[in-house]
Amino acid sequence: MGKKRFERVANSTRPAAKLGGGGGWNIDGARGIVDGDAASLPAYPTPLSRRRVADKGRVDLTVAASDAHERTRAGDEGETNASSSAAAAGASASTSHSAPRVYKKVFSGVGWRAAAPGFGNPEDKRDDAPRRPIILVGNLPTDVHPGELVDIIEAHCESLDYDGELTRTQMAVFGPARPKLKRDRGRLHRGFALLTFDTVAAALSCAALLDGADLRTPSKKTEGGLRPMKCTTEVGDAMDDRFMDGTQGEDAPPPPPPPVPDDPSAAPFSLSELRRFPMRSNCLSTHATLADLDPALRDRLARYFRDACEGLPEFASVFARAERLAGKYTRVKEIVESVEAFKVVVSFVATCERTGARRVRKFFDLACGHGLVGIMLAYAYPDRTVMACDRKRRESFEAFAEAFAHYASREENSPATFHDDEVEPEVEPGAAGSSRRSRRLPNLTFVEGELDVLAPNVDSNSLVLALHGCNEANKDSMRMATSASALWCVMPCCIRANLYLPNCTVSKMTDDQRYAFMCGVMACEYGAQMARCIDRRITNRAVVLCGGCEDGDEEEGDKADGDGEGGGSVGPFGTSTKLRFYSDHKHLVTRARRRKDGESAVAFVSNPSSR
């Protein structure tokens, strides 16, 4: 350890940084697991590659494991060669599939100060003559293969003029008791070697020649590969073969296998599981429906629906009913996409209302298509009105609306059995689309026509949605909202550049780059205050932009000073309020709040994953 590092460690308040006590970083308990990953335990001994010349004279460092760090000089005979062969055989046996894996308690052996007092604290140094003919060589480049470094060190020692002979060169490698940590990334070994000579006098004379001398290696860390060595003959008894192999210390039992849940469907859903669902090249398939999923995936998706909105676990049953009503419209991508967008809208509404800037009374779902987000908002907020608009009323809208209305009716008429997992009565397929007598959510209205037919109904207590609206639909929605000083939330799909940048040529961009660029342009032009991206595995049009949340005084000032089309904060310099999203589970929608407060006879059921 150098003087500066010694002072830094001595002044450290972290117990793990006291190398003399054998501390370590990023260690899970004492089993040698890095960051909780049992696979991070190295094999015993550390596998080292045998170097050989491959085709075209290139050096291949990727051959099978051997004990290359412990080698004898060429021409040695008898017992030394026999011990080297035995060590190599032991290494080969230990790396075979049949041999049991060895585990050691991490850093359970003696510390560096006891093993190398010559490199440690000044008070640890001894004035007496060394008892063993050993040199500890440090400051070696860790990006050079240890086998190759052994050859370089031995060749360097042969060029020196000293009385004696080098009999063994041993590199310090990683092992079960000294595994690789995060700070060891890219290191092929631990950076020091142990040289054994035939006599103590030879070790002393060679150490004097090596200390401070430059060693030329193929390292890329120093200019020309030159690196000064540090040498000492003050080597403690703890510096033995096990210390160099990283196998010193106490034995440890193997880490226990990860627990396997009795019911995999009971675990909280992670969006990383979407990879298991039918996919296109990089996101969910546009055609796969709930009926196309195998039972295991259906169970996992049902868990996702149960946890989608805190206090409303019936979402899973709602979508199951929608599948029975019109299964061809229950496409997995569209449902998951709508649920994630619904969660963003709920968070945005909660943020605006918590700041006191706005109270949302009406939602307008423009260019709604299947209208699932607007329908979920109508179900979650029965005290607020939702108006959906599109050029045509689709059968998918009818199916989803009837499914949610069915459970809204059950909450009123049979609250005691609302959460029972009873079998729903069979529903004739297509009934929702063919019958106008199906149930309706009382606060949900659908209007057929162009978007501007709803403009007279939008006011400052409104929130205008346009989720995956194409081209002019996004711009018309944001313009309608800003003209009425209303909140707005858009999830752009197709964006023509000339709508926002008529004098700019957008070219030589990938589809993802162009989409992100145009979303930025939209956010800048209309003064977006929030931008969030839903999981990219769901859709490649994943950006959600929100804005319009200004307090009353700021809005009046904007109206008086602005030269635009009306009130609201339009443009990046017209937005003075910076918002942040509250966590989804911290805000209860109206229906869940009523259950928790006892205003509804249906029992409140919390989401287990948010507790």
Automatic annotation (TrEMBL):
Residues 347-495 form the Methyltransferase domain. Residues 252-262 have a biased composition (Pro residues). Residues 1-25, 62-95, 241-268, 413-437, 553-577 are annotated as: Disordered. InterPro entries: Methyltranfer_dom (IPR025714), Nucleotide-bd_a/b_plait_sf (IPR012677), RBD_domain_sf (IPR035979). Pfam families: Methyltransf_32. It comes from Micromonas commoda (strain RCC299 / NOUM17 / CCMP2709) (Picoplanktonic green alga). Residues 67-76 have a biased composition (Basic and acidic residues). Residues 82-95 have a biased composition (Low complexity). GO terms for molecular function: nucleic acid binding. This is Methyltransferase domain-containing protein.
